[in-house]
């Protein structure tokens, strides 16, 4: 999704529209670009829709591993089947949704992790990725021993670039001599390449790494674990994947996006606009420090982290693009 489209979407003020009448049981489809077992981006969305299924007593269909070329037909198939809500999880769903939504006015199209909207039935839910990156960068700069940390992104799309910039900004807020390395895998799904790129940053001195994307994040965690360096998870709480490696996780609570989207559809408050969730909306957060990492930080450092989170929530500090 191009920045120009995002800006247009954000600057249009959308009025309330009539809410379609739904059947007794709301039918919602979640379309994912990757696997529900990736441990990050897609896992978070799947956990969110399963929680919503229990909370709201809805019917759910989850489609995994949807290639970009398949997206239009998959979206159309759900709309033709009369699904009340179709959620596309990722920026790559924005343009296909914009092309077809007008032909299916009784279906709400929700794009997650993007910023696009259109009357009468397109809304999007995104998170403050730059702020999440700032949180990760702050922690990384506190625990690094070499003074070098690194971020490995899948593909340089807007949300990942925002996280990358926030990561550097957060690190610099702790120490001005920290060296921040950055590299991209060129794929969201290549675990081996993710590990390879991560290893190259570790060889350049990075002893704390973080990664954004889909399955490529698994490669980063594996490489960090193998090299005996630390990692900061993103999106889905990653601690259980490598307890001796994961310091904490900069949470991107995409399950909260889905919960809010479903809730707003059900209560009729959904609008064709962009919803961006930060700390105060539980759209991002910081996972607990566990295991050996509970005592790694001093009380003063923990207090600084608490203050940083309070400053982000109040808007005093941000890792978002200016």
In short:
It is built from 10 helices and 12 strands. By secondary structure, it is an alpha/beta fold.
Throw out a few tags for this protein.
322 residues; 40% helix; six-stranded parallel beta sheet; six-stranded mixed beta sheet; alpha/beta
Question: How do the helices and strands line up, and which of them pair or pack?
Answer:
Blueprint: H1 3-11, E1 27-31, H2 41-56, E2 59-63, H3 71-80, E3 85-89, H4 94-100, E4 108-112, E5 122-127, H5 129-143, E6 148-153, H6 158-174, E7 179-184, H7 191-203, E8 208-212, H8 216-227, E9 230-235, E10 246-252, H9 254-267, E11 274-277, E12 284-286, H10 299-314
Parallel strand pairs: 1-2, 1-3, 3-4, 4-5, 5-11, 6-7, 6-8, 8-9, 9-10
Antiparallel strand pairs: 10-12
Helix pairs in contact: 2-9, 5-6, 5-10, 7-8
What this model shows, in words?
The protein is an alpha/beta fold and 322 residues long. Helix content is 40%, strand content 20%. Strands 2-1-3-4-5-11 form a six-stranded parallel β-sheet, sandwiched between helices. The chain has a six-stranded mixed β-sheet with strand order 7-6-8-9-10-12, with helices on both faces. The protein is globular. The model is unreliable at 1-21 (pLDDT under 50).
